[in-house]
Give the backbone structure.
Amino acid sequence: MKSLVLAVPFLLCAISIWASERPNILFIMSDDHASQAIGAYGGILAQLDPTPTIDRLAEEGVLMENVFAQNSICTPSRASIMTGQSSAVNGATDLDKEISVEQQYLSKEMRKAGYQTAVIGKWHLKEKPETFDYYKVLVGQGHYIDPVFLEKGATGTVVRPSASAWERNKFGPNIIFENAVQMEGHSTDRVTDSALEWLREERDPKKPFFLKLHYKAPHDRFRNAPRYDTYLDDVDIPEPDSLFDRQNHGSIATRGYEEELLPFLGSSISMRHRVRNYRGFAKGLLKINPEASEEEIAAYAYQQYLKRYLRCVKGIDDNIQRVLNFLKEEGLDGNTVVVYTSDQGMFLGEHDYIDKRWAYEESMRMPFIVRYPESIPAGSRSDAIVENIDIPAMLLDYAGVETPDYMHGRSFRTIMETGREGEDWKDAAYYHYWMHLKHHFVPAHIGIRTKEYKLLLFYGCAENSAEAHSPPAWELYDLIDDPKEMNNLYDDPEYSAIVEELKERLKELRSLYGEDDPKFLCNRAIDAYWDYDDEDRSRAVSLSESFREEMEEKYPPRSFSK
């Protein structure tokens, strides 16, 4: 008994030493921050120098060029990062789903490994993050101004007037938040304040910390802090070529048999889409120039959209600098793995789209930059294909934890540190957007993305439907010759062998990630249009016409007075 008593404090001491030797982990994630809006990724916006702080992280660490969300929408992507699982397995296939407290695997594993854990900012996974030692998270989507937080241990009640017609319809004139606190000012500033307060006052110096620092910005309905109101005022933002020229991008699934579906699919910068467009910006221009053409209206709306977006980005970049300054002042920067990413990408006018959801590059690609001076070479880059389900495995690797069997993902720590991919590393990313035609009118689709090609199938129905509702179609893009995805090659006979090979690979990934489970009725539609023979194409043409008629009745042309 005496030896056991002596062994217990020795064991606890050993665990404490083991924990202190491992790095702190700061995981910073914004919402909808496109890689093309980060200077280090290049592109037409780099000349504006929108992200000097994030760019310095890339200069001091590694920039991952090919990190992809398997499902480019907020809740599903965040669920995959917490679980290491595909949407089909963790259950969060769309914005209305959730993961249970029991499924908050990443934080549970970190705590078991001896880390002090906290999540501060946007959570968006419905169930409170009770598996963290501390949380202070925005309610739902959160508000940009005077945000309300659910905080661990809080006992107060916050009453906030409903800020939109949707909120008034759901909650009435006021929303009541229990166990909440409200802070004055801009969300990005207050999230950072809260993180710094936790780091200064609650951090246990005897333990490594794992902090998930999540910003709401730059999510749509942009509201920047007032100090950025004039930022970029006198700057002409460069336009993507595809804003005005779609070329051979898309298919009957996204454009219609004879372009008849263009007014109904994919929210637009221009006035193309009848429901989701930047009509308010157009009105602003027409007050100045009543004779403005449709192209001039689109160009004006683009400038307004981008400036509002980049003002929110600027707020994030400046606030990250505040956190990095703290790490340096406290002597923590050398032993902290700093990750910067976003839950997915974002369209900034490319193909005349806004929002995300599509499996095209601008939406599917996540920015991903990691600084850890101890082992990651400064200024390095990698084009290894990584999926968001791999992120928790990598984080756990730095915590000294082997990837649990229940996770689909794999750690890519060695790739970041050596620049080399192992022979068995993945060479393809999987994609599945499930929310057929919801909110931004994007048809459901699946896909596979390698370093050379992308193959997509738009299957035309919701998760619980077995038959196509909008026209199905396949799309193939040669990413070497056509990185902006302007030319759908699916029907080009020279690529027929590549199509067949990618279809086989796509089947394998669907099986690996549990996506082919017959409980999902949409798999019947996927199977029905897999071969896409003449009969399938004929049905797609018929569906295009019937779908157009349905949308015309539901969304007639809106009068727009100049």
